[in-house]
Amino acid sequence: MLLRLLFVLLIALNIAVGAWLLLGQNDTHMHFATDPGVPKLRLLSELPTPPGSVAPAASSAVPTSAPATAAVAPAPANTALPPASPNALSYACMALGPFATQEDLRIARNVLGAQVLRTRARQEQATEVRSWWVHLPPAPSHAAALSLALQLGQKNIKDYFVVGAGDNQNTVSLGLFKDPANARKRRDEIAAAGFNAQLTERTETVPEYWLDLMPVDSKHFDWRSRIHDQAIGSHSTGCF
């Protein structure tokens, strides 16, 4: 009986000590968000107001009626630009050609040398008159063309033949000439004999070679002093 009473008292004592530790020691078990030794943060409203001081206003009014502006000095009405230096270099691209062969173009490029900043070779197709053809207009039939040829022979006109096929069928050809002066002379002889002789240019598509370049100084660039072929010309072109 005595042991049971001691056991009950011991339990009651433990309960009393636990309640005292839990409810009576709040400051001891309180956890702070700051490290030890660091003062707690406090709101300004919690601080005591020193005597003779005025509490700050909730918000500062900013005057909007007269905004501050920076004074800007007006630019002069007429600003004179500095004159260009007479020794200033000028840049403009040009094309030289046409050259008959790629070898002629290569030689010209090497001759110009350091007078140009950069060069570019290009090839174009051109239509060129190769010869001049003297002939009579096409006859309506092959028999009519042979009749015209017989009439030419009766006038002591030689060196002709009748075209028997192709685009110029039934045409009486009177000669193909490299020199236009000789072609015109032949045409005039046939016309003087009473025939309607015609002169037609014979063209052919041939390649042409051009050299595009940008001189170091376009104003003083004299390519004629280095390239003496009179068949070569020049014209301005877009830079590249």
Automatic annotation (TrEMBL):
Superkingdom assignment: Bacteria
Q: Name one Pfam family in it.
A: SPOR
**The SPOR domain, residue ranges:** 131-199
Protein name, UniProt field: SPOR domain-containing protein
Its lineage reads: Bacteria, Pseudomonadati, Pseudomonadota, Gammaproteobacteria, Lysobacterales
